[in-house]
Structures are given as structure tokens and as C-alpha cells.
UniProtKB/TrEMBL annotation:
<protein>
    <submittedName>
        <fullName>G2477 protein</fullName>
    </submittedName>
</protein>
<feature type="transmembrane region" description="Helical">
    <location>
        <begin position="404"/>
        <end position="424"/>
    </location>
</feature>
<keyword id="KW-0029">Amino-acid transport</keyword>
<feature type="transmembrane region" description="Helical">
    <location>
        <begin position="379"/>
        <end position="398"/>
    </location>
</feature>
<keyword id="KW-0472">Membrane</keyword>
<dbReference type="InterPro" id="IPR013057">
    <property type="entry name" value="AA_transpt_TM"/>
</dbReference>
<keyword id="KW-0812">Transmembrane</keyword>
<feature type="domain" description="Amino acid transporter transmembrane">
    <location>
        <begin position="63"/>
        <end position="428"/>
    </location>
</feature>
<dbReference type="Pfam" id="PF01490">
    <property type="entry name" value="Aa_trans"/>
</dbReference>
<feature type="transmembrane region" description="Helical">
    <location>
        <begin position="221"/>
        <end position="244"/>
    </location>
</feature>
<keyword id="KW-1133">Transmembrane helix</keyword>
<keyword id="KW-0813">Transport</keyword>
<feature type="transmembrane region" description="Helical">
    <location>
        <begin position="445"/>
        <end position="471"/>
    </location>
</feature>
<feature type="transmembrane region" description="Helical">
    <location>
        <begin position="264"/>
        <end position="283"/>
    </location>
</feature>
<feature type="transmembrane region" description="Helical">
    <location>
        <begin position="195"/>
        <end position="214"/>
    </location>
</feature>
<feature type="transmembrane region" description="Helical">
    <location>
        <begin position="290"/>
        <end position="314"/>
    </location>
</feature>
<feature type="transmembrane region" description="Helical">
    <location>
        <begin position="156"/>
        <end position="175"/>
    </location>
</feature>
């Protein structure tokens, strides 16, 4: 008999051992929740139907598995689908497609690892009375990447995770502003790209008003509808144009360009910097490692086919333009697509930077304050991202550097390293793991060995060689164009 059945209801009062600093409510530690049940919020939603989901949660309190899937998909796609065709041109189709498939599968696996660590973290915090506030029900704070890694594997690794996730999310947020400016310029060059960056940076300030990851459902649906339309438009446009006979056989331009393109794949198919915030917002957090792969079916289906077709249709133009709109013919469909993608990009910006807002709130002490204090306190972070976007408008290169230096670490290396460090400690840790290795893996030994392979491969290929290639390209651009470029990659005439 499992613990939930033995205790009866999940909301049954349970006494929890206290440690120094634990929260108490009367004589009993944080009550009303069974510490063994890590999906306790799902108890109140067991009988929810699709009709219930349609009626409630569009603006707030959206914590279903569906909402987690929508958020994951919206965070994965967006402006990255506009630069993926260029990345395919840098690697070549024959090498690019296997890389995309491989990185997608490994990304799904490392999400399972992060999900397991989150459940360990939550179980520990509940047992010490630190998970809920004094009323025993309200959450204390949002759980984040660096906190989970730091708690399970030590402060030093938590500090590393903090630095990497900050750079990863800052880069992602900045890329949304740069992409929005570039896309707007392509249909309305009344301002330079730098001018449009000023406009989009100002608009991004509004996203400081989205409180948490449970408030994104309506925004996510709008964003995903837009990316779906754009993927179809790009595929049709490439097909109508016609395909070049030898485009599929084109090899990478050189060593540096190959790894620059491969790093974009690392970033596109490894957006784990927001994973813990998404898991934390779920009513049933233990389900995220199967919700995430399902969301990837949508991501993969709209982000991969159009990249291949654009390379087949426009091999020369695709090599020089890191935004797909730079090679497509300008017409009404393109304008509609850009407008829709602009909406998605401002939403994706909010998804990427909300975790940074949480970190900032904790730093300045507003995380536990009312919304009218907490939300305006985020403005300094939004202003900093705005400034970075103006200074470095190298759209595709930003994606590449994020992928190499932070994406490889946050999405692949750190999850495998933290998981191995935690579960190699003792047989007891493995035996008591709330999420055991799937049966098809063959048990703990194959899992730990495969994780070691992930660490070695992505440290060498992604972080090492890929990082060198991307940074070298970035430095070359700065030497050639400088910073605060007025109109990067603008078409002359």
C-alpha cells in the first residue's frame, strides 16, 4: 500500500519533523498537506474536465498539464524559428537534420533529470516546513534552477547554475527585442533597426506586469497560433518559389560556420532555463517529464520542416541572412506573418525574463510583497535588457553564443552532472528517489553512464569547440561593425 492510500486523503493533517528555522502553525508543523504527496494541488483538480479548463484559468491560476505544455511550446518556438533556416545553411542539411533530431531527444531526457531533482527538492522542503507559508497553504516563493541545483548538489554548483541561467535568460530576452526590431524593419523601414529596437524595448516594459507562470494561458495560445501560421506560410512560400537542384548537398562553409549553426540548434532545442518555473506552476509537477516531450511534437513539427525547405529554395540568400524574412519575397502574407510573430516575440520575452524578475525580486526583497510593489520593482531588469539589445543587434550570433556557452550548460551538462552527483552519493538516495529511472533504461547504471557521456560530449563539442566558434564570429562582427550598429544586415537600395 502506498503512503497516499495509507494516509487516506492528500490533505490530511500530518506532523512533520522540525528543523531550525522551519515554519510552525501552532503545535503542528505546516499542516493540511501530506508531505509524501508531491502532487498535492492536483487533488483538487482530479475531476476537472476539458470544459472546466475552457471555463477557467485563461488569465490566472492555470496550473494544468495542458498549461505546462503550452508554456513549454511557446518558450521553445518563436523568433528561433526565424533563425533556424540560417543555422541549417551553416551546417548543411545532411549534418543539420541529424543534429536537430539528436539534440531534441537528449533535451527530452535531461528534462526528466531536472524533474527528478525538483521532486527531491520539494520533498525536502516540505519535510522541513519550508515549502509553505505560515498558513500551511500559500507558497513561500517561486522555485528556480539555481535553488534546486544548489539544494541537491551544494552551493558551489548552485552558484554556477545561477550565473549560467542569468546569462541564458538575458540572452534569450535580448534576442526577442532584437528580432522584433528586425522583423518590424523588414515591413516598415521608416526607422532604422536601432530605432525599432528602441520601440520594442519600450513595449517589452509592459511584460513586467505578468505576475507568474500561472498567468500565461491566453498569451500562450495567441503565441502558438501565430507560430503555427508562420510555419505554414514559410513552407508554402518556399514551395511556390521552387527548390534548387543541388541545395541538399551543400556542405558547411567552414569549420567555424558549422559550429556556429550547431550552437543555434543547442539553444533552439534546449530551453531548460525556464523549466523549474514551469514545473513549479503545475498542479501535478511529477508529470512534467512526459508533458514536455508532447509539447516538443508541436515545436519540432513547426520548427524543422520550414528550415529544410527554405534552405532548399534559397540556399545562397539563406547563408547570408540570419533572419528568414530577409530571404522571403515581401507580400501581404509576409506582412501578416511578421505582425503575428511580433506578438509572439513579446510574449516569449515575458516567458524568458520572468525567472530573472523572480531573482531580482528576491535580491531586492520585493518577492513577498503585494503585486503593486513587486511588479514595478522589475523595471531595472527590463531596462538593462533593452540597453543590451541596442548595443548588440547581432541576432543570429546572439542565439549561437547563448546555445554554446549557456544553452549547452543549462540544458544538457548541468542536468546530467547534478543528477549524477546527487544519486551517486548512496544507494539509499537511489532507492528513495521519488522518480525512478524509466524501465526501458535498464536501471541506474545505464542512466548514470549515459549522463556521463552527455557531460563529456556537450562540454567538448558544445561548450568548448562551439563556444570558441561563436565567440570568434561575434568578435569578428564587432571589429567590422562596432557596437550600437544602426542597421545590421539591412538590404541596400
Amino acid at each position: 500500500m502506498d503512503d497516499t492510500a495509507k494516509h487516506g486523503k492528500a490533505f490530511e493533517v500530518a506532523k512533520i519533523p522540525q528543523k531550525a528555522g522551519a515554519v510552525e502553525t501552532g503545535k503542528t508543523s505546516v499542516t493540511d498537506y501530506n508531505p509524501v504527496n508531491l502532487d498535492e494541488e492536483a487533488t483538487g483538480h482530479e475531476k476537472d474536465t476539458w470544459l472546466d479548463l475552457l471555463k477557467h484559468g485563461w488569465l490566472s491560476n492555470a496550473g494544468s498539464n495542458l498549461d505546462a505544455g503550452l508554456t513549454s511550446a511557446a518558450a521553445q518556438v518563436g523568433q528561433v524559428m526565424l533563425t533556424l533556416p540560417h543555422a541549417v545553411s551553416l551546417t548543411g542539411i545532411r549534418a543539420g537534420v541529424p543534429l536537430i533530431v539528436s539534440y531534441t531527444l537528449v533535451s527530452m531526457w535531461t528534462v526528466h533529470l531536472l524533474n527528478a531533482l525538483y521532486l527531491e527538492y520539494k520533498r525536502s522542503k516540505i519535510s522541513t516546513g519550508e515549502w509553505y507559508a505560515g498558513d500551511g497553504k500559500a507558497r513561500r516563493k517561486a522555485s528556480q534552477y539555481f535553488e534546486v541545483v544548489g539544494h541537491t548538489c551544494g552551493r558551489w554548483l548552485g552558484a554556477v547554475a545561477l550565473v549560467l541561467t542569468v546569462f541564458n535568460l538575458v540572452g534569450n530576452g535580448t534576442a526577442q527585442i532584437v528580432a522584433g526590431a528586425a522583423n518590424t524593419y523588414s515591413i516598415n523601414p521608416v526607422l532604422s533597426k536601432r530605432g525599432w529596437t528602441l520601440v520594442w524595448g519600450a513595449l517589452s516594459l509592459l511584460m513586467t506586469l505578468v505576475p507568474s507562470f500561472r498567468d500565461f494561458r491566453l498569451l500562450n495560445v495567441i503565441a502558438l497560433a501565430g507560430t503555427g501560421f508562420t510555419a505554414i506560410y514559410i513552407c508554402v512560400s518556399a514551395g511556390v518559389h521552387g527548390f534548387q537542384a543541388n541545395a541538399v548537398n551543400l556542405a558547411p562553409y567552414n569549420f567555424q560556420s558549422f559550429f556556429t549553426g550547431a550552437n543555434v540548434f543547442l539553444w533552439a532545442y534546449g530551453g531548460h532555463g525556464v523549466s523549474f518555473e514551469i514545473i513549479d506552476a503545475m498542479w501535478k509537477p511529477s508529470a512534467y517529464d512526459w508533458v514536455y516531450p508532447l509539447s516538443y511534437l508541436f515545436t519540432f513539427s513547426i520548427a524543422t520542416p520550414h528550415s529544410i525547405l527554405v534552405q532548399l529554395a534559397y540556399p545562397k540568400g539563406n547563408l547570408t541572412q540570419d533572419n528568414v524574412y530577409g530571404v522571403l519575397p515581401k507580400n501581404g502574407w509576409m506582412v501578416a506573418s511578421i505582425i503575428i510573430m511580433l506578438i509572439h516575440q513579446i510574449i516569449a520575452y515575458a516567458l524568458y525574463v520572468t525567472p530573472i524578475f523572480f531573482m531580482w525580486e528576491k535580491l531586492v526583497g520585493t518577492h513577498y510583497k503585494p503585486a503593486y510593489i513587486r511588479l514595478p520593482s522589475r523595471l531595472p531588469v527590463a531596462l538593462l535588457l533593452w540597453f543590451i539589445a541596442i548595443a548588440f543587434p547581432f541576432y543570429g550570433l546572439i542565439n549561437s553564443i547563448i546555445g554554446a556557452l549557456t544553452g549547452s550548460m543549462v540544458s544538457f551538462i548541468l542536468p546530467a552532472l547534478a543528477y549524477n552527483l546527487y544519486y551517486l552519493r548512496s544507494a539509499a538516495a537511489r532507492a528513495n528517489a521519488p522518480k525512478q529511472p524509466p524501465r526501458w533504461t535498464g536501471g541506474w547504471t545505464p542512466v548514470l553512464v549515459f549522463n556521463a557521456f552527455i557531460i563529456i560530449y556537450f562540454t567538448t563539442i558544445g561548450f568548448g569547440i562551439g563556444g570558441y566558434a561563436s565567440i570568434k564570429t561575434f568578435v569578428d562582427k564587432i571589429r567590422t561593425l562596432g557596437v550600437f550598429v544602426d542597421c545590421y544586415q539591412c538590404k541596400k537600395g
